[in-house]
Amino acid sequence: SPTVGGGFGGRAGPHVQPVAAALALATGRPVKIVLSRAADFETCRSRHPTRAWMKIGARKDGTLVAMEADFLLDGGAFCDESAAVSSFAVMMSRGPYRMPHTRARARALYTNKLRAGSFRGFGNPQASFARESLMDELAHKIGMDPIEFRLKNALNSGEKWLGGQTVPACGVRECIEKVRDAIAADTKDATAPAPGRKRGIGISAFAHISSFLASGATVRLVEDGTLSLDTGAVDIGQGSGTILTQICAETLKVPFDEVTLATPDTDSSPYNYKSVGSRTTYTTGRAVHHAAIAVADAILDAAAKMLGCEAGDLELLDGGSVGVREDSPKRPAINRTVSFEEVAGFTHYRMGGPIVGSHTFVYDGSPFDRDGTKMKGVAFGNMGAYIFGAQAVEIEVDEVTGKADARRAWAASDVGRAVNPSNVEGQIQGGFAQGLGYALFEEMVWEDGRLVNPSLMDYKVAGVMDVPETVTPIIVEEPEPTGPFGAKGVGEPALVGVAPAVGNAIRNAIGERLTRLPMTPERVLAAIDPD
């Protein structure tokens, strides 16, 4: 696999690749297909345009009682991933809240338009925009602060997800609290907006998953005592190569630079479903962790033979060596350590053979209840390692033009354990920037089945001047019991809560609710002055 850029769902399935392969087979020659920008817009998948109907009810004290949701997704001309995206929209519709009575359904339709498929969030942003908008409206109607309303109903560790699964680790409450506290600290000395501008702050809370299907990893002790790691996970810019190497190194207590990561190759690397779904850190990381544990056990066994003791008398030491445990009765008699290089020499040339550890698995979390009493027609058997978060943004609206400017933002994500904090912060900030495009700018305009804005001149994305100078990333760690060192994902959820937070901020600024994305200046202005 060559080094490639970001996918965000665009690499989850083929578009022109089969055409290139078919032409190469037919001609016996190399084939390269180059798309113009317009052809790229018209060929590659988009996010599913969605209409959402939703109702949420609560008691006067703010306790949520019930939710009903109905989603209609535009799948385009082919089914593709519409069944899966529809299912996931339903699964995420309730969000990170206790909601005793819930009914949700989704339908996808064929239309004479571009096929829709995977895009960062996979149906969750659409569902979350509707839900979090209503959460704010409901809080206003019963006279509660929207943040306190969310805290009152936040899901707790050990409670059930919509599909009947138990959520072992849920940090959504801490995410909301940390965002609340950060807002208070950063805005305590804020000045009033200039005349003709209105300002508001909006918040959202959300959930996602970070594991499904299969992954594998192989770890090998090399002759010089270093380690070789091989997985099928492709790094598409999210930093997974670094993360997986860190997990291997930490498990075996060796420096990061003593683990060599092999370039993935479908002919030889262990199977990995895809680099999608925020799953690599948890799913492939879990395979790496257990493969490295198998290597650690084999190293201890070999070192025990070299030292004339039992493996239970030994432990891995920092830096790539094995020594006698402090509490071992053999410690007075054995006062030396053996390096990984010595162990490798022993196993390669004297006894046992080269040390290789491998681990493969299919996500083994409890299944969804799909017998018809709770879930019906859902495309997935199970998913899990739930991720949680909260995001807030301060928006300033120009009353003359309707332009909404994001001034600053706060984003908290419960990642279980931040294997690489800098990487996590980068994902949170990058996800916010992309989510801002979804909220305020990005729209494919169709007329009679034809895309009329297939260029970056007419299709607006968030640029450097549109993203707030300050996007404060907040890392929350509620360890996932089955994850490698408690880790779970962060890639997709970093986008999910942005649009509803922006919508809630605009509502708090101008007093009117926008229900259509993107919230362009024309639509904001129409909300301010319907006439």
Summary keywords:
16 strands; 531 residues; 13 helices; four-stranded mixed sheet
Structural notes for this entry:
It contains 13 helices and 16 strands. Helix 4 (124-142) runs parallel beside helix 12. The chain has helices at 17-27, 37-43, 82-92, 124-142, 146-153, 172-187, 240-252, 280-307, 340-349, 421-440, 493-496, 498-510, 521-528; strands at 50-58, 64-76, 101-110, 197-208, 214-221, 227-231, 259-261, 314-317, 321-324, 338-339, 356-362, 387-398, 404-414, 446-447, 450-451, 470-476. The protein is 32% helix and 21% strand. The N and C termini lie far apart (56 Å). With 531 residues, the protein is of the alpha+beta class. It has a four-stranded mixed beta sheet, with helices on both faces. A hairpin with a 5-residue loop joins strand 12 and strand 13 (404-414).
Oligomer: single chain
Q: Write the H/E string, N to C.
A: HHEEHEHHHEEEHEHEEEHEEEHEEEHHH
Estimate percent helicity: 25-40%
Low-confidence segments, given as residue ranges, are none
In spatial order, strands of the major sheet run 4-12-13-16
Overall geometry:
globular
Overall mean confidence score, pLDDT: 95
Any chance you could write out the topology, listing elements then pairs?
Elements: H1 17-27, H2 37-43, E1 50-58, E2 64-76, H3 82-92, E3 101-110, H4 124-142, H5 146-153, H6 172-187, E4 197-208, E5 214-221, E6 227-231, H7 240-252, E7 259-261, H8 280-307, E8 314-317, E9 321-324, E10 338-339, H9 340-349, E11 356-362, E12 387-398, E13 404-414, H10 421-440, E14 446-447, E15 450-451, E16 470-476, H11 493-496, H12 498-510, H13 521-528
Parallel strand pairs: 2-3, 6-7, 13-16
Antiparallel strand pairs: 1-2, 4-12, 5-6, 5-11, 8-9, 9-10, 12-13, 14-15
